[in-house]
Amino acid sequence: MIVDIHGHVSAPPELYAYKAMLLSSRGYHGKGDPGISDERMQQAAQNHVDVLKGVGTDVQFISPRPFQLMHSETPETIVRWWVAANNDLIARQCRAFPETLRGMCGLPQTPGGDIRACVQELERCVEELGVVGCLINPDPTEGTGLMPTLDDEYWYPLYDKMVALDVPGLVHSTACKNSRESYSAHFITEESIAVLNLCKAECRVFRDFPKLRLIISHGGGSVPYQIGRWRAHRIRERQRDQSLESFDESLRRLYFDTVLYNRESLEFLFRMVGVDRCLFGTENPGSGSAPDPKSGAMLDDLKPVIESIGWLNEADRRAIFETNAGAVFPRFAARMRV
To answer: For position 258, what pLDDT does the model report?
Structure first.
């Protein structure tokens, strides 16, 4: 089975018309309704499912389109309404295509907002909508300010609920209003910051929540490529305190997806963090949906790319494509056993 843990919802235009209404009215006219019919919902999902079938993907986990989540907008009320509308649409599409789609909910994160709103939406989505995980944005300011890093106790109520519900989080930035970088570049910036803070020698997150499972999007940002720098820093720290674990040991407390659109980077990731910490992900259809000028293959058609890595054995490939997802997403695995 080929399980893609990183996909985003393909929504009909009515959803984004609803977003425009919320932004223009700032909630003055109330919550409203996206007004997406079953026919329009199913049409958008069918096109998405057809793409997945075309590349041999059996199951994909879909979450809101991150750059559309408008976490930095005000008032907070419209962010909550918008995120809930995305999650509800995802649940409808998963019910319409239960063999192919599984839900990953977005969270109504806002700069300085009470994390309890995210806890409540996560609980609703797991218990009522049947999602198997959640999307965590490390920077709801969307490049405009400072947020507590993921090792800060600000996040602890969310981590506690994730452990209680037995769901993992996919660390994935959203939009960026900072003109110095695009939202896509901001993804890599924030993922790198997230990894380095979660791997700090003094980080207590995985001591306080040993069952917490966090997946870093896009192959861990820049961290695997820059690992020599972070190893060197940890070696100097260990000269002062021999009880500290190595940087590589800290890194292996996290999981990583394969949303990297070239073989060289994928091979490097597998070697640096280990096959057992990597989960197949493509974000297809999405940012990588462009043809390779040399081969003509779509860059986000990653199954044959991974299969072409000769030093991976069959057990390695099965772990990447299927069994690691079952271990990290127990609610998905439980349904597959039914």
So the answer is: 98
